[in-house]
UniProtKB/TrEMBL annotation, chain A:
Organism from which the protein derives: Chara braunii
Keywords: Decarboxylase, Lyase, Pyridoxal phosphate
Name of the top EC class for this enzyme: lyase
Modified residues (N6-(pyridoxal phosphate)lysine): K280
Enzyme Commission code: 4.1.1.15
Lineage, broadest ranks: Eukaryota, Viridiplantae, Streptophyta, Charophyceae, Charales
Record-stated family: Belongs to the group II decarboxylase family.
Pfam families per the UniProt record, alphabetical: Pyridoxal_deC
Protein name: Glutamate decarboxylase
GO cellular component, as recorded: cytosol
From TrEMBL, chain B:
Source organism: Chara braunii
MF-aspect GO terms: glutamate decarboxylase activity; pyridoxal phosphate binding
Protein name: Glutamate decarboxylase
Annotated NCBIfam families: Glu-decarb-GAD (TIGR01788)
Catalysis performed (reactions): L-glutamate + H(+) = 4-aminobutanoate + CO2
InterPro entries membership: Glutamate_decarboxylase, PyrdxlP-dep_de-COase, PyrdxlP-dep_Trfase, PyrdxlP-dep_Trfase_major
């Protein structure tokens, strides 16, 4: 930017900005490696950065993600008002602190934590379910270590049991906090954790078994009750007292409203902690999650830091320190704005739109449906016939219509399965669902058409169903690309949720 | 809220909201323990929550904090526009991802990381220095463990050497990641890490020595160069190869602009990683920090997760996953908006205003000054005479004038020293400095008057040692109890 300004000065031109696009500033690119020497007028800085960001995907059309992409304008007002509040400064911002405490209490009671009237719940506001899960895992690890130490037994090889379909943050927790991750592999047709296999993998070093309410791959709810019952039996025999954590990142804000009789939460005796993402079906923008413990006894005191403000003790247990107060306030806003009824109606709308989408996509005849009718409102589907094009082609071509609907491979044990996933969030109306179906159909037609044209160029004109795919040179090339993508995408890290 | 709505319906009245304060919704308190059954109209939800929040302190007048409390409206626009972008979704928001990478590159070069032209720096955007420090600590721990395993030596007792003045996140790191924290105690008059003592404490299990550029207590820069030189000598003797991490949470964005010749960063050979807070003198709202490593070798590959997007490998190393993209974009906005020149002028203004405040407070004659002229632009000061009132009284009374200027006790072993700390941030003008000074003077006058106008039986008519004064004893015991309750480093909010 310096040279543009210097030039302007030398030529005797004004260097104040009348119109951004008439100025000298748009003649040079934004710097990438070095902080520029000089200042840039604020209108220019805003406009040029804003413009480059136009090339990001449109969050509203990002069907890959569970994370909230729309909130009411009233919330935008609240967020701006709170943007310069550093949440951790509880002394100075006691109301913001209290709003967080109210959210913890409300979430805990929603999850049926056994708390008496008026008693504060045990929990924390986090940046997201990753932080929440790390805190929960840390609590399990420390509790288990203390127990083993008091029993005079070795405590250097903790492990935890999960399904292979867990989100990457579990792998991070295991790697960073030195816990062995034991994963129950999936299999074709069964894409979540098998409770029996899970319980078999448990031993005396298991700090907890983690079940998911709403697998990121296909939205399915794992059978936490069965897990609980089997583990209770095993605990009775072994005396190991292995507990359960439920990753309710998506499902935790769905199940209480549309399937309240499903027993998956603190109603099950072995469930000691649960995390939920405020920024998924908690209906707040990215940057807030919650972890709740059943009781004080489930959170070792030595992990808690005590902040003393206004003469009262405020215990804190977080990995992050300074952070904005806006999202915590936003969560409280949503709880008041929607109430139980409002959340229920939103979830019902999501479910109905997801079922509508499911039926419509099923009716095209091109796809297998991999998601269940119950669970997180999403549609996971894969092509019946991959000879001419695959899910990655479908995803690439849907982009041309504006949709972001990526393709993934399933987790280990079933990584030969590729699928497309469309998450139905609060802001996905029936109108958009109709558009999506129409564009999926158009995409398939286009791809078939394209395949037919290229087949006729490269292969002898024989009925398609009599030619093994392997004999088709172009098909081999495509298969090679597909496997390459499969290999590149095999890292669970790509499973953004 | 439910009963208010039912009431309205049964009275045959409309239950939509004409005026919030004429409606039934303001007759009941907001719920605290249980989610309400019914919805609330959005104007009401906004207004009632907004109103309760009026009772929070005013961030602009919060002189305790280093964290940015003002940004230009243009940045607010960018922040709002990016609210619904989940940063971690690199596939879908590649520009936001690239803006973060640009920030990492710019910061690394600001800190003199030895990177060639066009080469990418090794670093990460974080929520704040806490996450940054945990990532850096994790890297040191894993590197040390790998080295010990390769040597066939025990690797179960890692420790880290710091000053007792470290921010609480170091204690958290130590506690959560099972590393022993060895703290060099302070002493009266010396409120930062003593490099000689620190290097003394190092042994074969030390994963790193952490120095601070800008102690939260009094803003002082620790002598990183001396730590480096002493540690190099020791490393040469022992072969332990102990590295250094610099916590530049506040100082990291000040020193490059005000003290460019001060050697504290990657120019020192033993410095392997540095954290800086984007939300302190990086001039962005709370929620962004940065960690940079000297080179790839300093970050064990096994800690990195690889995300594959658009066919390109994007390595990531973070504790948090989903989070908003706004603050990372805001950091880039500041780098472009201000440039090096702009940052320098902001820091110079802060320094001048801090020095002005220092001279003026000192001139009142009531206070000892505990901060240095160099360092983070702040004023740390304590009362010369505590017999009638203490720093907590001053803080309490300054609140009545609108200022949030809390009192603290120093870290061990200087916890008998209490102090007031006023941080000069970007948005603290000379006008505000004048006001603060006037109010400090008024507060002292008020407290002196209040101390004198007491029932005569509580105040002896002849001079007596402070210990024999009942009211003084009462006050002293109150002060000690506050000291005890505030001793937890956790209260040192920065």
């Amino acid at each position: 930017m310096l040279s543009a300004v210097a030039d302007a000065k030398r030529e005797g031109k004004r260097d104040d900005v009348d119109t951004v696009f008439a100025s000298h500033y748009v003649q040079v690119c934004l710097p990438k490696f070095h902080m520029p020497r000089s200042e840039t007028p604020k209108e220019v800085a805003y406009q040029v950065i804003h413009d480059e960001l136009l090339l990001d995907g449109n969050p509203r059309l990002n069907l890959a993600s569970f994370v909230t992409t729309w909130m009411e304008p009233e919330f935008d007002k609240l967020i701006l008002e709170a943007i310069n509040k550093n949440y951790i400064d509880m002394d100075t911002y006691p109301i913001s602190t209290e709003l967080q405490d109210r959210c913890v209490n409300m979430v805990a009671r929603l999850l049926n934590a056994p708390i008496k009237d008026g008693e504060p719940a045990v929990g924390a506001g986090c940046i997201g379910s990753s932080e929440a899960i790390m805190l929960a895992g840390l609590a399990f690890k420390r509790k288990w270590q203390n127990k083993r130490k008091s029993q005079g037994l070795p405590w250097d090889k903790p492990n935890m049991v999960t399904g292979a379909n867990v989100q990457v943050c579990w792998e991070k927790f295991a790697r960073y906090f030195e816990v062995e991750l034991r994963e129950v592999k999936l299999r074709e047709g069964y894409y979540i954790m098998d409770p029996e296999k899970a319980v078999q993998m448990v031993d005396e070093n298991t700090i907890c078994v983690a079940g998911i309410l709403g697998s990121t791959y296909n939205g399915e709810f794992e059978d936490i009750k069965l897990l609980n019952d089997l583990l209770l039996e095993q605990n009775a025999r072994t005396g190991w007292d292995t507990p359960i954590h439920v990753d309710g990142a998506s499902g935790g804000f769905i199940a209480p409203f549309i399937c309240p009789d499903l027993e998956w939460d603190f109603r099950l005796p072995l469930v000691k902690s649960i995390n939920v993402s405020g920024h998924k079906y908690g209906l707040v923008y990215a940057g807030v999650g919650w972890v709740v413990w059943r009781s004080k006894a489930d959170l070792p005191e030595e992990l808690i830091f005590h902040v003393n403000y206004l003469g009262t003790d405020q215990p804190t247990f977080t990995l992050n320190f300074s952070k904005g107060a806006s999202h915590l306030i936003a969560q409280y806003y949503q709880f008041i704005r929607l109430g139980h009824n409002g959340y229920k109606r939103v979830m019902q709308n999501c479910r109905e739109n997801a079922l509508y989408l499911r039926d419509a996509v099923d009716a095209t005849g091109h796809f297998h449906i991999l998601s269940k009718r119950e669970g997180v409102p999403l549609l996971a589907f894969s092509l019946k016939d991959r000879c001419q094009f695959d899910e990655y082609d479908v995803a690439d071509n849907l982009k041309r219509f504006g949709w972001i609907l990526p393709a993934y491979t399933m987790a280990p044990g079933a990584e030969h399965i590729t699928l497309l996933r469309a998450v139905v969030r609060e802001d996905f109306s029936r109108t958009l669902a109709d558009r999506l179906v129409r564009d999926i159909i158009r995409t398939i037609e286009y791809l078939k058409d394209r395949a037919a044209k290229s087949t006729s160029q490269f292969t002898p004109p024989v009925p398609r169903n009599q030619v093994p795919c392997e004999d088709n040179v172009k098909r081999i090339g495509e298969e090679f690309v597909r496997r390459l993508r499969l290999k590149a995408a095999a890292s669970r890290s790509q499973g953004v949720c």
